[in-house]
Amino acid sequence: MKIIFFGTSEFAVPTLKEISLSRHKILAVVTAADKRKGRGQVLSFSPVKLFAQKEGLALFQPADLQDAEFVQFLKKEPADLFVVCAYGKILTKELLQIPEKFAINLHASLLPGYRGAAPVNWAIINGESQTGVTVFKMDECIDRGEIILQKKTDISSLDSAVNLGQRLANIGAGAIMQALDLIEQGKAGFASQDKTRVSLAPKLKKEDGLINWQEQALQIHNRIRGLQPWPGAFTYLEDKLLKICQSRVVEGGKDKAPGEIVGIDSKLGILVQTGRAQLLITALQLEGKKKMSAAEFILGYNIEIGKRLGK
């Protein structure tokens, strides 16, 4: 089948790679415009663009999806399918009507759960034990189309949003290839989403990273895992922002105030009281410093039992 691929982030690359290696023909790749990042405002390209350029695929980066020239290109030689994966923009009803068949989307959750921009993050933050990917037929409503197929995977207590996202990207690539086969053979089924099971995964904000030490240790631990790499879970130490990069839940605990440092071990880390149980911080990053293990931090920073984290 002839395909136009829409994608931007690293999550989309395994799917694009699998399609490019298959019998299907990629007519073009559509990705986000280049952006300037960092203090030096260096121009950066999306992972999808870098892959497309390496493979010599036709590439489009429309600032406006309603751009007449871009729409005309899509209509000139209609693809059989649009395949959309972590693109970052909403396809209009007009665009969705262009392909000979329809458009499909790969979403990193088991829809209708976790519709939205950050499904991997929120699944971990909310303490889910399982997630997966969904391939669905797109309509003009975000993440609400008919489901073609789903693949599941467990979430372990060691998973972060980074490694879980990578795993789902690889699972998703296989799911898309299976869906393409079903569509090509006329065997694809289309199931409506259960409206009673809808949950949302809104775009992350910096303030989502602020740790509330009144919460249980497990909730804080899940937030630390779920907010990597951005915005990161953070607190304050003597008015300096302190990112918590890795942690472990320690059951039990002393009758201390939430946020209070109750133990310092140069080998294990920094133990902090929470609303229930304690949190062992094993890796962190103080404002203006590099990320380091808690052991390194203890050696180089004057930290004492009894100090409180947070403002």
What characteristics describe this protein?
311 residues, alpha/beta, Rossmann fold, seven-stranded mixed sheet, six-stranded antiparallel sheet, elongated
How many structural domains? 2
Structure annotation, total helices: 8
The backbone outline, from C-alpha atoms, is elongated
Terminal-residue CA separation: 57 Å
- Provide the CATH topology of the largest domain: Rossmann fold
Say which CATH homologous superfamily of the largest domain is assigned: Formyl transferase, N-terminal domain
Radius of gyration: 23 Å
Strand order of the largest sheet: 5-2-1-6-7-8-9
CATH class value of the largest domain: Alpha Beta
Biggest sheet: strands, sense, closure? 7 strands, mixed
* Strand portion: 25-35%
Indicate the mean pLDDT.
Answer: 96
By helix and strand content, what is the structural category?
A: alpha/beta
Question: Which CATH architecture of the largest domain would you pick?
Answer: 3-Layer(aba) Sandwich
- The total count of strands amounts to 15
- List the uncertain runs: none
- Classify the helix fraction into a percent range: 25-40%
Query: Order of SSEs, N→C?
Result: EHEEEHEHEHEHEEHHEEEEEEH
